[in-house]
Amino acid sequence: MSTIPNKFPSLISDDHDDKLLNELPKERFWEALDIFQWEGFWFDPNIIKSAITFKSSFEARDDDVLLASTMKAGTTWLKALTLCIMQNKNTHQTHDEYHHKHVDILTTENPHFHIPNIETITYSTKAPKFDIYDSSAPRLLQTHLPYAALPDSIKNSACKIVYITRNPKDTLISMWHFFNSIYKPHQDPIPLQKAVDCFCSGVHMYGPFFEHVVEYWQESQKRPQKILFIKYEELKSDPKRHVSRIAEFLGRPFGHEKEVDEVVWRCSLERLKNLEVNKSGSVLLYVTNSSYFRKGEVGDWKNYLTPEMEEQINQTSRIKLEPFGLFL
Ligand code: PAP
After folding, report:
1. 58-83 pLDDT per residue, tens
2. Can you list the domains of the chain with their CATH numbers?
3. Is residue 70 in contact with ligand 1, taking CB distance under 6 Å?
4. Eight-class DSSP state of 27
Protein backbone atom coordinates (compact mmCIF):
# COMPACT_ATOMS: atom_id res chain seq x y z
CA MET A 1 0.00 0.00 0.00
CA SER A 2 2.94 2.33 0.41
CA THR A 3 2.81 3.82 -3.10
CA ILE A 4 -0.78 4.90 -2.68
CA PRO A 5 -1.31 8.27 -1.01
CA ASN A 6 -3.59 8.39 1.99
CA LYS A 7 -5.45 11.36 0.56
CA PHE A 8 -8.62 11.58 -1.44
CA PRO A 9 -8.62 14.75 -3.49
CA SER A 10 -11.75 15.60 -5.40
CA LEU A 11 -11.27 15.22 -9.14
CA ILE A 12 -14.34 17.36 -9.67
CA SER A 13 -13.47 20.99 -10.10
CA ASP A 14 -15.83 22.97 -12.26
CA ASP A 15 -18.63 25.12 -10.93
CA HIS A 16 -21.41 23.18 -12.56
CA ASP A 17 -20.44 20.00 -10.76
CA ASP A 18 -20.00 21.79 -7.45
CA LYS A 19 -23.48 23.27 -7.82
CA LEU A 20 -24.96 19.85 -8.48
CA LEU A 21 -23.20 18.34 -5.48
CA ASN A 22 -24.27 21.18 -3.21
CA GLU A 23 -27.87 20.27 -3.89
CA LEU A 24 -27.48 16.59 -3.02
CA PRO A 25 -27.75 15.09 0.49
CA LYS A 26 -24.29 14.53 1.93
CA GLU A 27 -22.90 12.20 4.62
CA ARG A 28 -19.46 11.28 5.87
CA PHE A 29 -18.56 7.70 4.95
CA TRP A 30 -16.54 5.89 7.64
CA GLU A 31 -14.94 9.15 8.77
CA ALA A 32 -12.95 9.20 5.55
CA LEU A 33 -14.87 10.61 2.63
CA ASP A 34 -17.96 12.69 1.81
CA ILE A 35 -20.52 10.71 -0.10
CA PHE A 36 -23.60 12.11 -1.83
CA GLN A 37 -27.02 10.67 -2.44
CA TRP A 38 -28.02 10.53 -6.08
CA GLU A 39 -30.87 8.47 -7.57
CA GLY A 40 -31.50 7.03 -4.10
CA PHE A 41 -27.96 5.66 -3.64
CA TRP A 42 -24.73 6.95 -2.06
CA PHE A 43 -21.61 7.67 -4.08
CA ASP A 44 -18.24 9.34 -4.11
CA PRO A 45 -18.73 12.66 -6.00
CA ASN A 46 -16.51 11.66 -8.92
CA ILE A 47 -18.61 8.57 -9.44
CA ILE A 48 -21.76 10.67 -9.69
CA LYS A 49 -20.18 12.79 -12.40
CA SER A 50 -19.18 9.72 -14.42
CA ALA A 51 -22.55 8.09 -13.81
CA ILE A 52 -24.41 11.13 -15.15
CA THR A 53 -22.28 11.11 -18.31
CA PHE A 54 -22.82 7.37 -18.68
CA LYS A 55 -26.58 7.60 -18.21
CA SER A 56 -27.02 10.45 -20.66
CA SER A 57 -24.65 9.45 -23.44
CA PHE A 58 -23.86 5.72 -23.51
CA GLU A 59 -25.22 3.91 -26.57
CA ALA A 60 -25.39 0.18 -25.93
CA ARG A 61 -24.89 -2.41 -28.66
CA ASP A 62 -26.91 -5.62 -28.63
CA ASP A 63 -23.70 -7.59 -28.26
CA ASP A 64 -22.28 -5.59 -25.35
CA VAL A 65 -22.03 -7.44 -22.03
CA LEU A 66 -22.38 -5.60 -18.72
CA LEU A 67 -21.28 -7.15 -15.43
CA ALA A 68 -23.04 -5.56 -12.47
CA SER A 69 -22.79 -5.98 -8.72
CA THR A 70 -22.70 -4.37 -5.35
CA MET A 71 -19.21 -3.84 -3.98
CA LYS A 72 -17.24 -6.86 -2.73
CA ALA A 73 -19.73 -9.40 -4.05
CA GLY A 74 -17.34 -11.28 -6.35
CA THR A 75 -16.84 -8.86 -9.24
CA THR A 76 -13.16 -9.67 -9.75
CA TRP A 77 -13.98 -13.36 -9.99
CA LEU A 78 -16.87 -12.73 -12.37
CA LYS A 79 -14.63 -10.57 -14.55
CA ALA A 80 -12.00 -13.30 -14.77
CA LEU A 81 -14.62 -15.93 -15.59
CA THR A 82 -16.28 -13.77 -18.23
CA LEU A 83 -12.97 -13.01 -19.90
CA CYS A 84 -12.25 -16.73 -20.20
CA ILE A 85 -15.77 -17.53 -21.35
CA MET A 86 -15.73 -14.87 -24.05
CA GLN A 87 -12.35 -16.15 -25.24
CA ASN A 88 -13.69 -19.66 -25.52
CA LYS A 89 -14.63 -20.29 -29.14
CA ASN A 90 -16.38 -23.60 -28.55
CA THR A 91 -14.63 -25.34 -31.42
CA HIS A 92 -14.44 -28.76 -29.77
CA GLN A 93 -10.68 -28.52 -29.64
CA THR A 94 -8.62 -30.89 -27.57
CA HIS A 95 -7.15 -29.83 -24.24
CA ASP A 96 -3.71 -29.30 -25.85
CA GLU A 97 -5.18 -27.31 -28.71
CA TYR A 98 -7.06 -25.18 -26.22
CA HIS A 99 -3.82 -24.36 -24.38
CA HIS A 100 -2.01 -23.66 -27.60
CA LYS A 101 -4.63 -21.30 -29.03
CA HIS A 102 -5.47 -19.31 -25.94
CA VAL A 103 -3.07 -16.81 -24.56
CA ASP A 104 -4.05 -16.66 -20.91
CA ILE A 105 -5.32 -13.12 -20.73
CA LEU A 106 -5.42 -13.28 -16.93
CA THR A 107 -1.64 -13.41 -16.79
CA THR A 108 -1.25 -10.17 -18.75
CA GLU A 109 -3.19 -7.72 -16.54
CA ASN A 110 -5.52 -7.63 -13.55
CA PRO A 111 -9.15 -8.44 -14.54
CA HIS A 112 -10.18 -4.87 -13.65
CA PHE A 113 -7.96 -3.58 -16.44
CA HIS A 114 -9.44 -5.91 -19.06
CA ILE A 115 -13.02 -5.12 -18.05
CA PRO A 116 -13.15 -1.51 -16.88
CA ASN A 117 -15.50 -0.22 -14.27
CA ILE A 118 -17.50 2.48 -16.02
CA GLU A 119 -17.93 4.98 -13.23
CA THR A 120 -14.38 4.88 -11.84
CA ILE A 121 -12.65 5.32 -15.18
CA THR A 122 -11.37 8.73 -13.99
CA TYR A 123 -9.36 6.88 -11.33
CA SER A 124 -7.49 4.73 -13.89
CA THR A 125 -3.75 4.63 -13.36
CA LYS A 126 -3.09 4.12 -17.07
CA ALA A 127 -4.94 4.54 -20.33
CA PRO A 128 -7.83 2.09 -20.42
CA LYS A 129 -7.66 -0.74 -22.94
CA PHE A 130 -10.47 0.77 -25.00
CA ASP A 131 -12.78 3.76 -25.05
CA ILE A 132 -15.91 2.69 -23.24
CA TYR A 133 -17.95 5.14 -25.33
CA ASP A 134 -16.69 3.80 -28.67
CA SER A 135 -19.44 1.55 -29.98
CA SER A 136 -17.60 0.34 -33.08
CA ALA A 137 -17.03 -3.05 -31.43
CA PRO A 138 -18.80 -5.02 -28.69
CA ARG A 139 -17.69 -4.14 -25.20
CA LEU A 140 -17.25 -6.01 -21.96
CA LEU A 141 -17.95 -3.53 -19.17
CA GLN A 142 -18.64 -3.53 -15.47
CA THR A 143 -20.50 -1.29 -13.06
CA HIS A 144 -21.51 -1.05 -9.43
CA LEU A 145 -24.27 1.39 -10.34
CA PRO A 146 -27.83 0.47 -9.40
CA TYR A 147 -30.23 -0.67 -12.10
CA ALA A 148 -32.18 2.60 -12.03
CA ALA A 149 -29.04 4.55 -12.89
CA LEU A 150 -28.27 2.56 -16.05
CA PRO A 151 -28.74 4.25 -19.41
CA ASP A 152 -31.99 3.49 -21.25
CA SER A 153 -30.02 2.08 -24.17
CA ILE A 154 -28.75 -0.71 -21.89
CA LYS A 155 -32.22 -1.45 -20.57
CA ASN A 156 -33.88 -1.35 -23.99
CA SER A 157 -31.28 -3.10 -26.14
CA ALA A 158 -30.54 -6.82 -26.24
CA CYS A 159 -27.25 -6.33 -24.43
CA LYS A 160 -26.87 -8.80 -21.59
CA ILE A 161 -26.29 -8.15 -17.91
CA VAL A 162 -24.76 -10.60 -15.44
CA TYR A 163 -25.37 -9.53 -11.86
CA ILE A 164 -23.48 -11.07 -8.94
CA THR A 165 -24.41 -10.67 -5.31
CA ARG A 166 -23.32 -12.17 -2.02
CA ASN A 167 -24.43 -12.83 1.54
CA PRO A 168 -24.71 -9.37 3.15
CA LYS A 169 -22.64 -10.28 6.21
CA ASP A 170 -19.75 -11.57 4.10
CA THR A 171 -20.08 -8.56 1.79
CA LEU A 172 -19.83 -6.23 4.75
CA ILE A 173 -16.77 -7.96 6.20
CA SER A 174 -15.08 -7.92 2.79
CA MET A 175 -15.90 -4.22 2.50
CA TRP A 176 -14.58 -3.57 5.99
CA HIS A 177 -11.21 -5.10 5.15
CA PHE A 178 -11.07 -3.37 1.78
CA PHE A 179 -11.88 0.16 2.94
CA ASN A 180 -9.71 -0.14 6.05
CA SER A 181 -6.78 -1.06 3.82
CA ILE A 182 -7.41 1.99 1.65
CA TYR A 183 -8.57 4.64 4.09
CA LYS A 184 -6.72 3.55 7.22
CA PRO A 185 -3.66 1.59 6.12
CA HIS A 186 -1.59 2.47 9.18
CA GLN A 187 -4.36 3.24 11.62
CA ASP A 188 -6.90 1.38 13.70
CA PRO A 189 -9.71 -0.03 11.58
CA ILE A 190 -13.07 1.66 11.60
CA PRO A 191 -15.11 0.24 14.50
CA LEU A 192 -17.03 -2.71 13.16
CA GLN A 193 -20.25 -1.59 14.86
CA LYS A 194 -20.06 1.66 12.90
CA ALA A 195 -19.61 -0.25 9.66
CA VAL A 196 -22.59 -2.47 10.51
CA ASP A 197 -24.76 0.57 11.30
CA CYS A 198 -23.80 2.28 8.02
CA PHE A 199 -24.46 -0.92 6.10
CA CYS A 200 -27.89 -1.44 7.62
CA SER A 201 -28.90 2.19 7.17
CA GLY A 202 -27.66 2.09 3.58
CA VAL A 203 -25.27 5.02 3.97
CA HIS A 204 -22.16 3.53 2.42
CA MET A 205 -20.45 3.48 -0.95
CA TYR A 206 -23.01 2.35 -3.56
CA GLY A 207 -25.49 1.68 -0.75
CA PRO A 208 -28.06 0.71 0.18
CA PHE A 209 -26.84 -2.81 -0.55
CA PHE A 210 -30.30 -4.29 -0.07
CA GLU A 211 -32.15 -2.03 -2.53
CA HIS A 212 -29.34 -2.48 -5.05
CA VAL A 213 -29.79 -6.25 -5.00
CA VAL A 214 -33.58 -6.10 -5.06
CA GLU A 215 -33.66 -3.85 -8.14
CA TYR A 216 -31.57 -6.26 -10.21
CA TRP A 217 -33.31 -9.29 -8.73
CA GLN A 218 -36.73 -8.03 -9.77
CA GLU A 219 -35.54 -7.17 -13.27
CA SER A 220 -33.91 -10.58 -13.62
CA GLN A 221 -37.21 -12.20 -12.64
CA LYS A 222 -39.08 -10.17 -15.26
CA ARG A 223 -36.47 -10.62 -17.99
CA PRO A 224 -34.36 -13.74 -17.37
CA GLN A 225 -33.02 -13.64 -20.91
CA LYS A 226 -31.68 -10.14 -20.25
CA ILE A 227 -30.28 -10.39 -16.71
CA LEU A 228 -28.62 -13.41 -15.16
CA PHE A 229 -28.65 -13.21 -11.37
CA ILE A 230 -25.80 -15.13 -9.71
CA LYS A 231 -24.97 -15.65 -6.06
CA TYR A 232 -21.33 -15.80 -4.94
CA GLU A 233 -22.14 -18.76 -2.70
CA GLU A 234 -23.58 -20.73 -5.63
CA LEU A 235 -20.42 -20.14 -7.62
CA LYS A 236 -18.35 -21.33 -4.67
CA SER A 237 -20.38 -24.47 -4.02
CA ASP A 238 -20.78 -25.65 -7.61
CA PRO A 239 -18.49 -23.59 -9.83
CA LYS A 240 -18.74 -25.85 -12.89
CA ARG A 241 -22.51 -25.71 -12.98
CA HIS A 242 -22.74 -21.95 -12.55
CA VAL A 243 -19.84 -21.10 -14.84
CA SER A 244 -21.60 -23.19 -17.49
CA ARG A 245 -24.81 -21.24 -16.80
CA ILE A 246 -22.99 -17.95 -17.36
CA ALA A 247 -21.43 -19.27 -20.57
CA GLU A 248 -24.78 -20.44 -21.93
CA PHE A 249 -26.41 -17.14 -20.99
CA LEU A 250 -23.72 -15.26 -22.90
CA GLY A 251 -24.19 -17.49 -25.93
CA ARG A 252 -20.79 -19.17 -25.48
CA PRO A 253 -21.64 -22.66 -24.21
CA PHE A 254 -18.69 -24.94 -23.51
CA GLY A 255 -17.98 -27.71 -25.97
CA HIS A 256 -16.84 -30.20 -23.40
CA GLU A 257 -16.24 -30.54 -19.71
CA LYS A 258 -12.49 -30.00 -19.88
CA GLU A 259 -13.08 -26.44 -20.98
CA VAL A 260 -15.19 -25.72 -17.91
CA ASP A 261 -12.55 -27.32 -15.67
CA GLU A 262 -9.92 -25.17 -17.30
CA VAL A 263 -11.84 -21.93 -16.80
CA VAL A 264 -12.70 -22.74 -13.18
CA TRP A 265 -9.06 -23.50 -12.46
CA ARG A 266 -7.74 -20.40 -14.26
CA CYS A 267 -10.06 -18.17 -12.27
CA SER A 268 -9.57 -19.77 -8.86
CA LEU A 269 -8.69 -17.36 -6.08
CA GLU A 270 -5.46 -19.17 -5.24
CA ARG A 271 -4.25 -18.94 -8.80
CA LEU A 272 -5.26 -15.32 -9.42
CA LYS A 273 -3.88 -14.17 -6.10
CA ASN A 274 -0.47 -15.57 -6.97
CA LEU A 275 -0.18 -14.20 -10.49
CA GLU A 276 2.51 -11.51 -10.76
CA VAL A 277 0.05 -9.04 -12.31
CA ASN A 278 -2.12 -9.27 -9.21
CA LYS A 279 0.61 -9.26 -6.60
CA SER A 280 1.70 -5.72 -7.44
CA GLY A 281 0.56 -2.57 -9.22
CA SER A 282 -2.84 -0.98 -9.36
CA VAL A 283 -5.43 -0.41 -12.04
CA LEU A 284 -7.21 2.27 -10.03
CA LEU A 285 -5.71 5.06 -7.95
CA TYR A 286 -5.57 4.18 -4.26
CA VAL A 287 -6.45 0.51 -4.88
CA THR A 288 -3.71 -2.10 -5.13
CA ASN A 289 -4.39 -5.09 -7.36
CA SER A 290 -3.65 -7.40 -4.43
CA SER A 291 -6.49 -5.86 -2.39
CA TYR A 292 -9.07 -7.58 -4.60
CA PHE A 293 -7.95 -10.98 -3.37
CA ARG A 294 -8.31 -11.91 0.27
CA LYS A 295 -9.85 -15.11 1.66
CA GLY A 296 -12.86 -15.68 -0.55
CA GLU A 297 -14.60 -17.77 2.09
CA VAL A 298 -18.29 -18.26 2.64
CA GLY A 299 -19.17 -17.45 6.26
CA ASP A 300 -16.01 -15.50 7.11
CA TRP A 301 -18.32 -13.04 8.91
CA LYS A 302 -18.51 -15.55 11.77
CA ASN A 303 -14.94 -14.61 12.67
CA TYR A 304 -15.89 -10.96 13.19
CA LEU A 305 -19.53 -10.20 13.95
CA THR A 306 -21.02 -10.40 17.42
CA PRO A 307 -24.41 -12.19 17.73
CA GLU A 308 -26.01 -8.72 18.05
CA MET A 309 -24.42 -7.48 14.84
CA GLU A 310 -25.43 -10.72 13.10
CA GLU A 311 -29.01 -10.20 14.20
CA GLN A 312 -28.95 -6.55 13.12
CA ILE A 313 -28.03 -7.56 9.57
CA ASN A 314 -30.36 -10.57 9.54
CA GLN A 315 -33.22 -8.36 10.62
CA THR A 316 -32.48 -5.91 7.79
CA SER A 317 -32.39 -8.80 5.32
CA ARG A 318 -35.70 -10.10 6.62
CA ILE A 319 -37.31 -6.72 6.04
CA LYS A 320 -35.63 -5.73 2.79
CA LEU A 321 -34.93 -8.94 0.89
CA GLU A 322 -37.22 -11.71 2.01
CA PRO A 323 -40.52 -10.05 0.97
CA PHE A 324 -39.16 -10.29 -2.59
CA GLY A 325 -38.41 -13.99 -2.25
CA LEU A 326 -34.71 -13.24 -1.98
CA PHE A 327 -32.61 -15.15 0.54
CA LEU A 328 -28.90 -14.35 0.74
P1 PAP B 1 -14.80 -5.11 -5.91
O2 PAP B 1 -16.20 -4.79 -5.56
O3 PAP B 1 -13.81 -4.14 -5.32
O4 PAP B 1 -14.60 -5.33 -7.38
P5 PAP B 1 -14.97 -7.94 -5.48
O6 PAP B 1 -14.08 -8.62 -6.43
O7 PAP B 1 -16.42 -7.86 -5.82
O8 PAP B 1 -14.44 -6.48 -5.18
O9 PAP B 1 -14.90 -8.64 -4.06
C10 PAP B 1 -13.71 -9.05 -3.48
C11 PAP B 1 -14.03 -10.35 -2.77
O12 PAP B 1 -14.02 -11.41 -3.72
C13 PAP B 1 -12.97 -10.72 -1.74
O14 PAP B 1 -13.67 -11.44 -0.73
P15 PAP B 1 -13.14 -11.57 0.78
O16 PAP B 1 -12.79 -10.20 1.23
O17 PAP B 1 -14.29 -12.17 1.54
O18 PAP B 1 -11.97 -12.48 0.73
C19 PAP B 1 -12.03 -11.60 -2.56
O20 PAP B 1 -11.22 -12.44 -1.76
C21 PAP B 1 -13.04 -12.38 -3.37
N22 PAP B 1 -12.46 -12.93 -4.59
C23 PAP B 1 -11.61 -12.33 -5.47
N24 PAP B 1 -11.29 -13.16 -6.46
C25 PAP B 1 -11.91 -14.33 -6.20
C26 PAP B 1 -11.93 -15.60 -6.86
N27 PAP B 1 -11.24 -15.82 -7.96
N28 PAP B 1 -12.68 -16.58 -6.31
C29 PAP B 1 -13.41 -16.37 -5.19
N30 PAP B 1 -13.41 -15.20 -4.52
C31 PAP B 1 -12.68 -14.19 -5.01
Report:
1. 999 999 999 999 999 999 999 999 99
2. 27-324 (3.40.50.300)
3. no
4. E
